[in-house]
Amino acid sequence: MRWILALVLALAAGTGALYGLTGGFTVLTAEAARRQDVARHPRAIPATEVLAEDGGVLDLRQDLERDGRVAIVNFFYTRCMALCLAQGSLTERLQQAIQARGLQDRIRLISISFDARDKAPNLIRYAARMGADSRIWQFMSFAQPAQRDAVLDLFGITVVPAPLGEFEHNAAFHVVSPDGRLVRIFDLDDPGLALSAAEALAAAGRGGQP
Amino acid sequence: MSMSGRSGSLPWWGWGVAALACLGLALALRGWLTALMSLHMLVQIPLLVLAGLFAEQAWHAGRNRDPAGRPRPAWSYNEYGIPGLLLVSLVGAGWMIPKALDDALTDWRVAAFKYLGLPVCGWVLRASLRRSNVVIKLFFLGNFCWMSAIVGMIYLDQPIRLCNAYLQDDQDWSGRGLIALAIVLPSCWLLAELKPVWRFLNR
Fold first, then answer.
1. Interchain contact, B77 vs A156, CB within 8 Å
2. Residues in A lying within 8 Å of B, measured between beta carbons
3. Which domain holds residue A10?
4. A11 plus A104 within the same structural domain
5. Which residues, other chains included, contact B93 with Cβ-Cβ below 8 Å and sequence gap of 6+?
6. Burial track A90-112 (b if 16+ CB lie within 10 A, e otherwise)
7. Any bridge partners for residue A58, and if so which?
8. Same domain assignment for residues A176 and A202
9. Is residue A34 in some structural domain?
10. Chain A contact probe: residue of B82, B85, B160 with most A CBs at under 10 A
11. Which residues of chain B make contact with A12, given a CB cutoff of 8 A?
12. Between vectors from CA A125 to CA A124 and to CA A129, what angle results, nearest 5°?
């Protein structure tokens, strides 16, 4: 009955391959895999220079620490005609929720452009278009391509050039702690979950520093 | 998958050249072939499988050049090819998972699994088909085809991108391709195996 042994081995090898490819039968897409992995192992953001709306250059990590609020981060580019607009209006709703619930001293929103063409004037125009309250919602753009690639890689954002000078990219709400760690990722369909996770993180942070 | 048990018409080196051509194309054009999801799934991966399949064909044809031939072993680990076909089916299912396609571009382990594992699967597939009969072939082919058609329909239906590295449009084309594969593959098989199928039906 050697062939039964072979059958069991083939089943084990094939199932093992499927196990390996699906992160232990838990995920079918790379997007789900990155969300699950970040939830299990938060990732520290490296030192990254970003352009701010006022034209200045600041270090993202230092800015997070100095500001002290939990940030909900997403990535976009100002010329985007599709996904970013949806993401933008959802972020605007998040801003309204933050204002309505008086969370602006604990939670803020950051949108970072990955398009090298986006400078301060583009960011200011976009912020105005989105009705952003600059105390709650800040817009930034990467200052250096190498650092941009490192941060996008860390966040698990894949940017694919598409026809007509557009980009396709995965979008989500990224909850980032003041000490510069990416803690959780939520779907664009779940802004409420992102907000409550950020609230819980802010509350935990306050508990730590009475 | 459409080839029958009889030896092919090409000499052994002909199959060898075909195997090397498939492997060479899949490797040399890998930048271009992995730029689109549809080419990655429906051209590069099949080329890698075909490379293994033709290599086995070459090996088999080369071994049987001597008309006396070697006696068939009294037993086989791959009886009726069932263990081999099971393995190939599971690995085939694995390469329909969007995460596998994304990871093959970013994770060297998955890339190694693709470039080494798929030719091995092709080899196992050919060797297993050689040992199996029409009922077993129909079972595994049928399974593969409904899986391919369903995955293709899911790809076409998804309003969101399943692969971070590929565009939505391209995902739709992959879906159409998988559905086409589910129609073309059994049609080719039926044409190639018309005689044994006919014999089986008229038994």
1. no
2. 2-3, 5-7, 9-11, 13-15, 17-18, 20-23, 27-33, 156, 158, 160, 162, 168, 170
3. 2-29
4. no
5. A18, B147
6. bbbebbeebeeeebbebbbbbbb
7. A50
8. yes
9. no
10. B160
11. none
12. 115
Instruction: Search chain A and give the residue with CA nearest B118.
Output: A17
- pLDDT tens sequence for chain A (210 residues): 788 899 999 999 999 999 999 989 999 999 999 999 999 999 999 999 999 999 899 999 999 999 999 999 999 999 888 788 889 899 999 999 999 999 999 999 999 999 999 999 999 999 999 999 999 999 999 999 999 999 999 998 999 888 888 888 889 999 999 999 999 999 998 999 999 999 999 998 765 443
Pick B161's closest partner by Cβ from A18, A21, A168. A168
DSSP-assigned beta bridge partners for residue A175:
A72, A184
- At residue A184, φ and ψ (nearest 5 deg) are -145, 155
CA distance B10 to chain A (A): 31
Chain B partners within 8 Å of A5 (Cβ): 77
Asked if B83 lies within 8 A of A32 by C-beta distance, the reply is no
Q: Are residues A170 and A192 in the same domain?
A: yes
Residues of B in contact with A10 (CB under 8 A): 83-84, 86-87, 90
Same domain, A17 and A54: no
Tens-digit pLDDT profile for residues B83-138: 999 999 999 999 999 999 999 999 999 999 999 999 999 999 999 999 998 899 99
Q: How far apart are CA A130 and CA A128, in angstroms?
A: 5
Q: Same domain, yes or no, for A136 and A198?
A: yes
Residue A36 lies in a domain: no
- Residues of chain B with Cβ-Cβ distance to A33 below 8 Å are 99
Domain count, chain A: 2
The ipTM is 0.85
CATH of the domain at A75: 3.40.30.10
Residues A96 and A163 in one domain: yes
User: Nearest-CA distance from B153 to chain A in Å?
Assistant: 16
Cite the DSSP H helix spans in chain B. 12-28, 30-33, 37-39, 45-63, 82-94, 98-106, 108-131, 134-157, 168-192, 194-201
